[in-house]
């Protein structure tokens, strides 16, 4: 993907079939679906791809065990099917993750065991592995730092684990492979209308300060937690439909759970589940559910949320982490659809599609796991509204960019799939690119070069937060690596020292919020 060539295509195209506002999981999924059907597809994103919610998840592709507890059978069935399809279509990014639910009360063994057998049955042929009952000894063998006091046993089950931002970038690349035009840092400032009907958007390339009048047969609002802003752009008196909820995650050294098996605590004090998941040789612990009044592109972990996660995880581990052990803390906002529920924890995770009087099509809600189905559902509506040729959805069996059969998950670049060869070629041509950007981070200089050359990486924050996951894995190390990344990017992008300084300063001001106050 090359941003300059994407902008050239934008300038030379007079009419698009589909214009998508929003470059998170949902928008990118729609772009893949639309482009693979042969529709002339444009996606514009105000910030970077997956800058918001879609890079801040618990890193799970899952059916949703807690939704099963809530009785939302439809959502679980759909999510389990989509989990299986995603594992088949992107095996280089989505992998099987085993989980243990520890049992400290006598009734938990049969209760969760039977529930997870139902979960297995619902997954059918797309299941990732059978659940099974564990003795106390087997539970501790799989999760050696779990508190043994009062432990009765456990239940083992399987779900999917992935790198969310990496999948987002590869979805963007998949869409581009099929002819879509995607532009990050392109803000929609208004909607174009003809006879009261939406006929396109007025967008600004915020890097080059250039405005574009974009005409399209259908415009889809897929802006997640910012959905209401676009709805109000369409109609100033439009009712808000989003009730944002914040979830945070804390990242620790793997020493606190030296295992490839994750832990799932089925019920915390606020009714949410708590996960401790191995990820990129760290442990991610979360998440919370805190209603927030407004959406921000850089949400911050609240003090009470940090306390909540620390309080709960120390109940279950023999080696209790402290504040100084937090390598990074990150917050994400969920675009929950408003309802009559008393708390955001019980609001629907189903997706919601609406069409305004001016025929602006909006999709919101949902979750990463069901992004493909969400895209299919909304595109069927958009294609009919725009009177586009009737073409069947192709994404059920569509390989995601980088697709590799039987990837080696121990290989350092496995999540790049076939693109790993390109990064290796860069290192072969210039041995200095084999160097790590920081001794505490397992990312090479070649990956920064690749991100600039092939993945539309425009800022240091893009490089260290989403093209690599440095910021989420170790915020302090990422801050120290910023000048290194900046120098590499400046060389590739032909930028000067002033650009590097501005970029480093901007990144540091963001990264500080990923460190706890000790």
Low-confidence stretches: 340-348
From the coordinates shown, what is the CATH architecture of the largest domain? 3-Layer(bba) Sandwich
CATH-level-4 superfamily name of the largest domain: FAD/NAD(P)-binding domain
- Helical percent range? 25-40%
Structural class, judged by helices and strands? Answer: alpha+beta
- Under CATH, the topology of the largest domain can be stated as FAD/NAD(P)-binding domain
Count of individual beta strands: 20
Q: Keywords, please?
A:
10-stranded mixed sheet; 20 strands; 3 domains; FAD/NAD(P)-binding domain; globular; Helicase, Ruva Protein, domain 3; 8-stranded mixed sheet; 518 residues; alpha+beta; D-Amino Acid Oxidase, Chain A, domain 2
Polypeptide structure, described:
With about 525 residues, this protein is an alpha+beta fold. It has 3 domains: about 5-55 and about 165-240 and about 345-395, 3-Layer(bba) Sandwich (FAD/NAD(P)-binding domain); about 95-160 and about 245-335, D-Amino Acid Oxidase, Chain A, domain 2 (2-Layer Sandwich); about 415-515, Helicase, Ruva Protein, domain 3 (Orthogonal Bundle). About 35% of the residues lie in helices and about 20% in strands. It has helices spanning about 5-10, 25-35, 65-70, 75-90, 110-125, 135-140, 165-175, 225-235, 305-315, 370-385, 420-430, 445-455, 460-465, 470-475, 475-495, 495-510, and strands spanning about 15-20, 40-45, 60, 95-105, 130-135, 155-160, 180-185, 185-195, 195-205, 210-220, 245-255, 260-265, 275-280, 280-285, 290, 330-335, 350-355, 360-365, 435-440, 440-445. Strands 3, 4, 5, 6, 11, 12, 13, 14, 15 and 16 form a 10-stranded mixed β-sheet that branches. Strand 12 and strand 13 form a beta hairpin. Helix 2 runs parallel beside helix 7, helix 11 crosses helix 12 (about 445-455) and helix 12 packs across helix 15.
């Amino acid at each position: 993907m090359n941003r300059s060539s994407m902008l050239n295509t934008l300038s030379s195209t007079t009419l698009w079939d589909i214009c998508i506002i929003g470059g998170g999981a949902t928008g990118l999924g729609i772009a893949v679906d639309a482009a693979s059907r042969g529709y002339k597809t444009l996606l514009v994103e105000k910030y970077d791809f997956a800058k918001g919610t879609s890079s801040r998840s618990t890193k799970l592709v899952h059916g949703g065990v807690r939704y099963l507890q809530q009785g939302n059978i439809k959502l679980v069935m759909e999510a389990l099917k989509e989990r299986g399809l995603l594992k088949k279509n992107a095996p280089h990014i989505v992998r099987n993750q085993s989980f243990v639910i520890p049992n400290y009360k006598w009734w938990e063994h049969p209760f969760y065991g039977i529930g997870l057998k139902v979960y297995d049955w619902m997954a059918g042929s797309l299941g990732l592995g059978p659940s099974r009952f564990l003795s106390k000894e087997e539970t501790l063998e799989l999760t050696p730092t779990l508190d043994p006091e009062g432990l009765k046993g456990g239940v083992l089950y399987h779900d999917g684990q992935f790198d969310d931002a990496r999948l987002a970038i590869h979805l963007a690349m998949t869409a581009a492979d099929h002819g879509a035009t995607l532009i990050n840092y392109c803000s929609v400032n208004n909607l174009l209308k003809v006879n009261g009907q939406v006929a396109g958007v007025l967008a600004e390339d915020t890097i080059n300060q250039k405005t574009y009048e974009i005409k399209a047969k259908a415009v889809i609002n897929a802006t997640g937690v910012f959905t209401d802003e676009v709805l109000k752009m369409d109609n100033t008196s439009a009712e808000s439909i989003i009730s944002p909820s914040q979830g945070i995650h804390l990242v620790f050294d793997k020493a606190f759970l030296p295992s490839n098996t994750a832990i799932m605590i089925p019920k915390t004090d606020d009714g949410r589940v708590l996960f401790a998941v191995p990820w990129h040789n760290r442990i991610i612990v979360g998440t919370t559910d805190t209603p927030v009044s407004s959406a921000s592109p850089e949400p911050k972990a609240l003090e009470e949320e940090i306390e909540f996660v620390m309080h709960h995880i120390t109940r279950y581990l023999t080696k209790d982490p402290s504040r100084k052990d937090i390598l990074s803390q990150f917050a994400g906002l969920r675009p929950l659809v408003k309802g009559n529920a008393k708390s955001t924890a019980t609001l629907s995770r189903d997706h919601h599609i609406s069409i305004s009087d001016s025929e602006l099509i909006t999709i919101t809600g949902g979750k990463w796991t069901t992004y493909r189905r969400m895209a299919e559902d909304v595109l069927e509506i958009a294609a009919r509204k725009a009177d586009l040729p009737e073409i069947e959805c192709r994404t059920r069996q569509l390989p995601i960019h980088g697709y590799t059969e039987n990837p080696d998950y121990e290989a350092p670049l496995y999540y790049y799939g076939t693109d790993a060869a390109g990064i290796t070629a860069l290192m072969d041509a210039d041995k200095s690119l084999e160097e790590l950007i920081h001794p505490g981070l397992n990312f090479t200089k070649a990956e920064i070069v690749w991100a600039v050359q092939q993945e539309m990486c425009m800022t240091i924050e893009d490089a260290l937060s989403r093209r690599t996951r440095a910021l989420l894995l170790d915020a302090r190390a990422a801050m120290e690596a910023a000048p290194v990344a900046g120098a590499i990017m400046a060389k590739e992008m032909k930028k000067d020292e002033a650009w590097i300084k501005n970029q480093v300063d901007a990144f540091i001001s963001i990264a500080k919020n990923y460190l706890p106050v000790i």
